[in-house]
Design a protein that fits this description.
Layout (H helix, E strand, L loop, with lengths): L1 H19 L6 E6 L2 E6 L2 E6 L6 E6 L2 E6 L2 E6 L1 E5 L2 E11 L6 E9 L4 E6 L2 E9 L1
Antiparallel strand pairs: 1-4, 1-11, 2-3, 4-5, 5-6, 6-8, 7-8, 8-9, 9-10, 10-11
């Protein structure tokens, strides 16, 4: 009987710790309507408001969506949370118009400040975020 109790206790502790460190039950949306930044090894360029279509990011548990212009990528992501910082890594988000076309995106989100930075497909985009 004692072995069963220890095993059950270990199971409860494991899942309590895992749930406390994951962002799986939270939904966030992020945007930047003020400017857009593209970077490569030669430097960065920005576009002012009115010169681009605002980019949007959605995170719902492990489902990660990135939309820019008329293109969206969607799929599952790895989500790691420590303290108030969430790192989202998606190594193969599928383009909705062409699912065979994949893209890699990373999002670093500060949940206290409500800000994030998105990297991927040439973007290095700061964003403001809100909990949905």
């Amino acid at each position: 009987m004692r072995y069963g109790f220890r095993r059950a206790l270990a199971f409860v502790i494991f899942y309590a710790v895992a749930a406390g460190g994951a962002a799986s039950a939270k939904s966030w949306s992020c945007r930047n309507e003020q400017f857009e930044i593209h970077c490569d090894k030669n430097g960065c360029e920005s576009s002012a408001a009115g010169e681009f279509t605002p980019m949007g990011v959605g995170l719902d548990g492990r489902t990660f969506d990135v939309c820019a212009y008329e293109t969206c990528w969607s799929g599952r992501a790895r989500v790691h949370e420590r303290d108030h910082v969430v790192h989202v890594h998606a190594g193969g988000l599928a383009m909705t118009a062409n699912p065979k076309s994949k893209a890699r995106f990373d999002l670093l989100l500060d949940t206290k400040a409500g800000v994030a930075v998105l990297l991927g497909e040439g973007f290095a985009q700061p964003m403001t975020c809100k909990l949905e």
